[in-house]
Amino acid sequence: FSLQTLFKSTKVIPVMLMGTILKNSRYSTIEYVEAVLITTGVCVFSLAKSNWSTDSNTLAQTIGLILLCVYVLSDSFTSQWQSRLYKDYGKIDSFQMMCGVNISSIVITAMALVVSGELPLVLEFLWYNPNSLMYNVITSVVSTTGQLAIYYTIKKFGPIVFTVIMTTRQMFSIVLSNYIFSHSMTLQNYLGATLVFAVLLYSTYRQMHAASVTAGLREKDRPTAPSSGSNSSVASTSVVEPPSSKEGKDQDDA
Q1: What band does 240 get if pLDDT is binned at 50, 70 and 90?
Q2: Which whole-number Å values give the CA distances from 74 to 63, 85, 220, in the listed order?
Q3: Which SS3 state, helix, strand or coil, does residue 43 take?
Q4: CA distance linking residue 166 with residue 168, whole number of Å
Q5: Regarding predicted confidence, which is higher, 48 or 198?
Q6: pLDDT of residue 236
Q7: For residue 101, how many other CB atoms are within 10 A of its CB?
């Protein structure tokens, strides 16, 4: 579980690549350095000896690695594509995005169950275990709440910030997994995980600092409104004007 969780942290690089392909986004050098360091930390963590057993199936490991890569690429494409939809069609809100995604998921899942012949097994399981329906409803409610937060974050702050938030969450998952299931971790595991999450914390700090500096510059460049005293003085001086020479001559003739 720890390897699977930390492997998902490499989504930063695919998200950046998808942003370049789908939205022509440009990223700074420090962002690419952070992405490389995160990937390095994941490799250090995954190559630890404690993660590989001697009697494991090499074919199963290869298939699992391919599935993880497909998941990361698909997830990276999803967040960037949603961000592009929000940008191109500004009237789309989080509820409409969630409705479209969930309807598509229902259709694809139903087709997969029908093709694989597992739909009767699902119905039979629900028939003999009616209590499981309640747990499915609870899971759906919790998942819907999470999706609302996800879509709002992507629309408001962009897919990169969302990926950093989700990756940081993995740290707590790893800690809880090791504590609850008593997973053993070697020094190499700790070094890899520390590198990944140290880069993520620095990236979060850098983005927050850059946002505060940008906000300060905008506040500084904003024109200040003149005070009421200066307005009255300008108005009073502009009212009194000396008479022109022609007007003075006319008064003398009179």
Answers
A1: very low
A2: 16, 16, 42
A3: helix
A4: 5
A5: 198
A6: 45
A7: 14
Residue 152 burial (C-beta neighbours within 10 Å; 0-12, 13-18, 19+): middle
The residue with greater pLDDT, 243 or 153, is 153
Alpha-carbon dihedral of residues 26, 33, 207, 200, nearest 10 degrees?
A: 130
pLDDT at 107 over 90: yes
Phi, psi of 149 (to 5 degrees): -65, -40
What is the spatial distance between Cα 231 and Cα 222, in angstroms, rounded to a whole number?
Answer: 19
Chain-wide mean pLDDT for the chain? 75
Note whether 3 and 174 are within 8 A (CB): no
Distance CA 41, CA 39 (A): 5
Tokens of 28: 């700074």
248 contacts: CB under 8 Å, gap ≥ 6: none
Closest CA to 171 of 26, 11, 6: 6
pLDDT at 233: 45
Q: How far apart, in whole angstroms, are the C-alpha atoms of residue 118 and residue 135?
A: 20
**Predicted TM-score (pTM) of this structure:** 0.51
CA 113 to chain centre: 31
Dump pLDDT digits (tens) for 160-185: 777 777 766 766 677 677 778 877 77
Residue 153, token pair as written in the block: 């974050």
